[in-house]
UniProtKB/TrEMBL annotation, chains A, B:
The lineage of its organism: Bacteria, Pseudomonadati, Pseudomonadota, Betaproteobacteria, Burkholderiales. The keyword DNA-binding applies. CDD domains: CAP_ED. InterPro entries: cNMP-bd_CS, cNMP-bd_dom, cNMP-bd_dom_sf, Env_Response_Regulators, HTH_CRP, RmlC-like_jellyroll, WH-like_DNA-bd_sf, WH_DNA-bd_sf. GO terms for molecular function: DNA binding; DNA-binding transcription factor activity. This is Crp/Fnr family transcriptional regulator. Residues 147-216 form the HTH crp-type domain. Residues 13-133 form the Cyclic nucleotide-binding domain. It comes from the Bacteria. GO terms for cellular component: cytosol. It comes from Noviherbaspirillum saxi.
Length: 247, 247
């Protein structure tokens, strides 16, 4: 189904474009609804559209060489996605699935490219967005290089912390199995890591949000681990390192 | 020292720009020489220039949360770097060190931004380059999620394989300690992995290049491992997984 001019005008990438361009763009776009767990884009497919999330939530998901599913990041309303293939013409680099019922708008690749390369405003936004992806992916890479799974969970939690009037909080924390695939561990490890933080009163659950009572200790936990971490897990990293060094 | 018009004209990002723009750009640029192991950019510094490697070789290096150095990728002559900060104004995301004696040219941020956002030709090249970084970083992320260190080395080697007239070869393989930091393991593990591949005649060393005699077996080694892998290392991944699952 086609999208309304107002909907197109509300897409952050298009903010500030003249009315005429907006009308043209809105006419070229179409939208589609997805249920939870639907596949919105499939890895390896050809890129025929630049996509925009109008409502709902999506997750970028990839599969490791040995077949395990890993979550890369979440997509929130207003964001666009599928831009890699639109830019370089190569197949989709990852699959995207809906985490909630979602509404997605599609702009054909040729028109998307014309808009991006010929409008300094759009080019700048697009490049800034890419820069953010590169930084996030670099942070995630650094995080994944932490050999200890517990510390990876702590480091990941740190990235969700936001400053609010009530201090540092984590709102809208992804589900445990989602965090597990982001940091390449099991759901059980995520559960135990969270439990340990709550037991030590470093974080505290209040309804759907987590209050971070001791931000400095959360940081220390990510960098150096916690004394209270179960022995088996606490020693994963060093054990692997030693085994490799002894090899 | 300022750079020659011819040098600027040979920078791939600037190919096809009109003579007048090239003259302006060349006048704004300066160049500097670096010895091996010099720090060219330092993580956390402010971004005052877009940088271009004129000659030599550089490596992007980051430091993990627990202080270990990890190599991200190499920069070859003709490439530009430091573009993230030029785009988003945030501090440098990683340090860059010279692997060989190198010559680097610098274009001030303001002029670099004007060029990127206002020239569709440059905007497209810049975005395509960003898309490649994102894809490479996503591949590396997938690679790092392989729990077994040997398999990570095999998967990394696969990425260096090129098709030539003499079949599949690996030319200019980074040093063992460089591969080690790329795949987050020890130099000893890289050495043993390479040795195992040569012993099984999957790869063969001829002077400075490696001939890949059995590309399919290299692939299998990356995905499923090799029977000949030393037991300690071959079981790292599963051991960790089990420990976590039992936790």
């Amino acid at each position: 189904m086609p999208i309304a001019l107002e909907t197109a005008a509300n897409i952050p990438l298009f903010k500030g474009l003249d009315q005429e361009t907006l009308i043209t763009v809105a006419k070229l776009m179409s939208s589609r609804s997805f249920l939870s767990h639907d596949i919105v884009l499939r890895k390896g497919d050809e890129a025929d559209h630049l996509c925009f999330l109008l409502a709902g939530q999506l997750q970028v998901v990839d599969v490791t060489e040995d077949g395990r599913e890993i979550g890369i990041h979440f997509i929130s309303p207003g964001a666009y996605f599928g831009e890699l293939s639109v830019i370089d013409g190569a197949p989709r680099s990852a699959s995207i699935v809906s985490v909630k019922p979602s509404e997605v708008a599609f702009l054909p690749t040729a028109q998307a490219r014309a808009l991006i390369f010929n409008r300094p405003l759009v080019a700048e936004r697009f490049l800034t967005h890419f820069a953010q992806i590169v930084r996030a992916s670099s942070r995630q890479r650094t995080l994944l290089s932490i050999p200890n799974a517990f510390q990876r969970v702590f480091a990941q939690l740190q990235q969700f912390v936001r400053d609010t009037n009530e201090g540092q909080v984590i709102e809208g924390l992804p589900k445990q199995h989602e965090i597990a695939i982001m940091v390449n561990t099991s759901r059980e490890t995520v559960s135990r890591a969270l439990h340990t933080l709550m037991k030590l009163n470093i974080v505290e659950k209040k309804g759907t949000i987590f209050i971070v009572n001791r931000p400095d200790q959360l940081k220390t936990a990510a960098v150096a681990g916690l004394d209270e971490m179960p022995a088996t897990n606490a020693n994963n990293g060093p054990k692997v390192e030693k085994a490799e060094k002894a090899a």
